[in-house]
Amino acid sequence: MIDKTQIIDQLNTKSFGHTVFSFDSIDSTNTFAKQLQSNDAPHGTLIIAEEQTAGRGRLQRNWVSPFGKNLLLSIILFPDFGMEKILLLPFAGSLAIADAIENVTGLSSTCKWPNDLLINGKKVCGMLLESSLGNSAQEKIVLGIGLNVNQEEFSEDLKSKASSLQLECGAVINRVTLLRNILEELEHRYEQLSHFPSQRLLNDWRMKALLFGKKITVLESEFSFTATAIDVNEDGSLIIETEDGLKRNIFAGDVSLAYS
Ligand code: BT5
């Protein structure tokens, strides 16, 4: 099991990962993080688990991860910026994790709008951004991250679309080193978002996204249609052009995307 002191030892951050709650098994690190009182869990608090019994994705989907192999974590944030930037936190998260993966394994990954990281076209990481009001009525944000690190096998339904860092680079990865790197990169991207115009972060994200100009399938509740991805807006929505030439913005909460 990942030990709290191992994480904090040599951690080079101002606040991220300074308070840690770690579990062998929990329903969902995001659910636990949302329930914590803000005096027990300041900005940058980390919740990690070796296993989740009810790991969640977006739109009531599941996140599945075997015991002790991967990273399942949530970070609590009390952002010092408004909703327009809060919506960009998954972009900051994707970039931070892509950088940490590259630092530790040398693997390069691509960002898939809105919250996935892919390596060789397969999903290795997903993110879930949720909000709840803290005691101080300040916006409390929980950024949940599921990263497939040392998983060697996937179920039949995930096999063709999911992978892990170990499968991609052929070596067992030290999860503590990777986690420390993730915390440092996350704090760095959080500060970039906080101190600079959003475009700076979005430009970095655009360089790591393979989406633009590509045909995509948009799944919107029961409907699906094909479109071309054009760009991301400052509010994090995706600009698409439908087959009849109409431009539309789509929002992460409403849809899923598949490459056509
Ligand atoms: C996500 O949702 O990708 C967000 C996943 C966030 C998980 C973390 S783990 C720590 C924290 N606590 C939680 O309870 N959640 C967060 P979405 O875009 O909806 O993708 C979900 C879909 O990804 C599922 O329907 C599966 O098809 C697929 N999937 C499930 N487990 C996977 C895995 N380990 N690797 C790759 N794909 C997976």
Describe this structure in words.
By secondary structure, this protein is of the alpha+beta class. Helix content is 27%, strand content 30%. It is built from seven helices and twelve strands. β9 and β10 form a beta hairpin. It is globular. The structure holds biotinyl-5-AMP (BT5).
Tell me the layout of helices and strands.
Layout: H1 4-8, E1 20-26, H2 29-35, E2 46-52, E3 71-77, H3 83-86, H4 89-105, E4 110-112, E5 116-119, E6 122-133, E7 139-147, H5 165-169, H6 175-195, H7 198-208, E8 215-220, E9 223-232, E10 238-242, E11 247-250, E12 255-259
Parallel strand pairs: 1-2
Antiparallel strand pairs: 2-3, 3-7, 4-5, 5-6, 6-7, 8-9, 8-12, 9-10, 10-11
Helix pairs in contact: 4-6, 4-7
The protein binds biotinyl-5-AMP.
CATH C-level class of the largest domain is: Alpha Beta
Which percent range fits the helix content? 25-40%
Bound molecules: biotinyl-5-AMP
Please tell me how large the radius of gyration is. Answer: 18 Å
Strand content: 25-35%
Spans with pLDDT under 50 lasting ≥5 residues? none
State the oligomer.
single chain
Largest sheet: 7 strands, mixed
Derived structural class: alpha+beta
